[in-house]
Specification:
The protein is of the alpha/beta class. It has nine helices and eight strands. It has one domain: Alanine racemase (TIM Barrel). The chain has an eight-stranded parallel sheet with strand order 7-6-5-4-3-2-1-8. The chain is globular, with a radius of gyration of 17 Å. The structure holds pyridoxal-5'-phosphate. Pyridoxal-5'-phosphate (PLP) is lined by residues 32, 34, 55, 78-79, 159, 200-201, 216-220.
């Protein structure tokens, strides 16, 4: 079942890339394992998926522990992170996708023993319920991170609204791409900002069309039937 799902997802990645003449090698599939146990995650790793994500600190540490023999796995924390939990997780992950405050960045700076790859979460849709920096505050926010040597801004992340139409979702992803290019063009050493983390099970084809380089997919990989 998981193998079939993976095959389908990979095919959709290729088709979406082909539509806009992108090389599918530019898109990294991150498997979001929050709804499954370690054995399902392991099955995917055995099928060659080497990027796994969790949205909770404790769950990520648990999975990492039980899959510790697979040293090739890159671990992504995609959910938001409370400052008091930074210490327990930050040196165990390869990417953090939800940086959304200066105080959080300062705590990462304090606790990290090496440079942490971070995506800034941007709230493009403006929904109250969503985390993230507002687009108009992004540039100032990035400048505030200048002295944090352990925080490297590799890109931007967003979540599209769950119930929006395709056109709206595409425009949200396109806006994130514009912001990414803007930050990238500042040529800040601590913020190369070349990556775009956007697209989930129901909207990753649209995200790829709009330039996603990391897609975060859960349900489509683990659904039954
Ligand atoms: C759960 C989650 C995903 C994956 O969602 P699916 O719809 O299951 O693909 C992606 N990103 C974040 C931040 C999540 O919390």
């Amino acid at each position: 079942m998981i193998a079939d799902n993976l095959h389908t997802v990979k095919q959709e990645i290729q088709e979406s890339c082909a539509l806009v003449s992108r090389n599918s090698g530019e898109v990294t599939l991150i498997a979001v394992t929050k709804s499954v146990d370690s054995s399902a995650a392991e099955e995917l790793v055995k099928l060659g998926v080497n990027n796994l994500a969790e949205n909770r600190v404790d769950k990520l540490l648990e999975k990492k522990e039980s899959l510790s023999q697979y040293t090739q796995i890159s671990w992504h924390l995609i959910g938001n992170l409370q400052r008091r939990k930074v210490k327990s997780i930050i040196n165990h992950i390869d990417y953090f996708h939800a940086l959304d405050s200066v105080r959080l960045a300062q705590e990462i700076q304090k606790r990290a023993t090496h440079k942490i790859n971070c995506f800034i979460e941007v709230n493009i849709s403006g929904e109250e319920s969503k985390h993230g920096i507002r687009p108009e505050e992004l540039t100032a926010f990035v400048h505030e991170l200048a002295d944090l040597s352990n925080v490297s801004i590799v890109g931007l992340m967003t979540m599209a609204p769950f119930d929006a139409d395709d056109e709206t979702i595409r425009s949200i992803f396109a806006s994130l791409k514009n912001l990414q290019e803007e930050i990238c063009s500042l040529k800040l050493k601590y913020a190369p900002c070349t990556e775009l983390s956007m697209g989930m099970s129901q909207d990753f084809p649209l995200a790829i069309i709009e330039g996603a380089t990391y897609i975060r997919v859960g349900t489509a990989l683990f659904k039954k039937g």
